[in-house]
Amino acid sequence: MQLIALAFDAPHAIDAYLNAVSGAIRDRSDAYDEGEAIWSVVTFLVSLAVTFGLYQTGFIRGLRDRVEARLPRWAAVFPFVLVYTLVFGLITLPLDIWLSHFREVAYGNSTQTFGAWFGEYLIEFGLNLVATAIFVGLLYLVIRALKRTWWIWGAGLSAVLIAVMLLILPVFIAPLLNTYTPMEEGPLRTDILNLATAAGVPADDVYVYDRSRQTNTISANVSGILGTTRVSLGDTLLADATPAEVRAVMAHEIGHYVLNHIYEMLFAFTVLIAIGFAFANGTFAWAARTFGGKWGIGDIGDIAGMPLLFALISTFFFFATPVVNTIIRSNETEADAYGLALAREPDGFAAVSMKLGAYRKIDPGPVERFVFHDHPTGRDRVTMSMNFKAAELAAGATDLDPSQAPLVPEVERYVAEREAKRTGGGK
Ligand SMILES: [Zn+2]
């Protein structure tokens, strides 16, 4: 028997995948992603402008005076935060509605009516309000007790809160918005559990949640810690991806879990938050001196300074966007490599990455990618997949087929179907 490997042409396969999403659909996906970047800048500027306006009109100062006249200082923080967050939320509501609902509908991502979307928006707003009130209440206890070093302790407090959120979010909050049902017995479920077992993930069940209630975008996750570990797939993934693609996606998600990305991110973001708090601490005195007279802001422990303090923190994070995105993106790249090695489905992963390209810019420029993209691009993923395949074949792998054509027809089928749903008036 002759052992001449059939030539696998990786560059050719990469081009074939990248060209699978083209024309008007590629333009729309580019426009969607570019819009996301532009709107993130607009949203930031609007939040600064609203904060400025609420100070200039005397609203913040008046609110502080009223709550502190009726309640002890530590307790006054809570009504202050509740009223301020509600007023701020009402002013920015039209922008939120446009961005989170109508824009998603226009691009064919959302599957919800306005009413259904707004109901969930209110639930999330309510949960956020409670979490914010608890966080700010505790933060101001820390700030008032430790005026010089609060930013270190405040970052520690944030880390604890984020950890609690990560712990309770998948177990208690996610089921409020979606229904999780055990995945039907079958070969695909067995494949997923085998991947999990091979990777040492302590999960013995797979759940499917009704993601299609909100969106037609594809997603899955492996979440939880300490006995709450669960493997979950959006029903959109099952509906829109072939079994090979599902295995590729689940292996990527298992990669996040096995590589402890959640703890790595918790650590990285705690450090960033500490730097952000230090920045806000340093600039607060200057800002309060410059504007504080008219705005009625006292020292850093004054709750009337909270909107200013948070504006400074969000300014820091706005400029740290590329840093945050690079931290996330490097984890995503690691999970991609892990997933390819675990599932050994390079064509499945390339195909599903191009399906994501129906609503994510496939091939942005290097600066745009660095600043705004928190995931590897379609080009990155297709390239990594095909290079993996080429390297494995060169090393003598027998489970990969060098003559298998790129799964372009499958990508084109998905893209055409999605486009028909978007334009056909059908949901
Ligand atoms: Zn990921």
UniProtKB/TrEMBL annotation:
The similarity annotation says: Belongs to the peptidase M48 family.
Sections of the chain in a coiled coil: none
**Catalytic center at which residues?**
E253, D336
**Binding positions for Zn(2+)?**
H252, H256, E332
Q: Which Pfam families match?
A: Peptidase_M48, Peptidase_M48_N
From the UniProt record, which GO molecular function terms apply?
metal ion binding; metalloendopeptidase activity
Q: Which InterPro entries match?
A: CAXX_Prtase_1, Peptidase_M48, Peptidase_M48_N
Please provide the record's keywords in A-Z order: Hydrolase, Membrane, Metal-binding, Metalloprotease, Protease, Transmembrane, Transmembrane helix, Zinc
Q: Which residues cross the membrane?
A: 37-55, 76-101, 121-143, 150-173, 266-288, 300-320
Organism of origin is Hyphomonas johnsonii MHS-2
Q: Give the record's GO biological process terms.
A: CAAX-box protein processing
Domain (CAAX prenyl protease 1 N-terminal): residue spans on this chain: 27-179
Needed cofactors = Zn(2+)
Q: Where is the Peptidase M48 domain?
A: 184-382
- Name the record gives this protein: Ste24 endopeptidase
Explain how, and how many, cofactor molecules are bound: Binds 1 zinc ion per subunit.
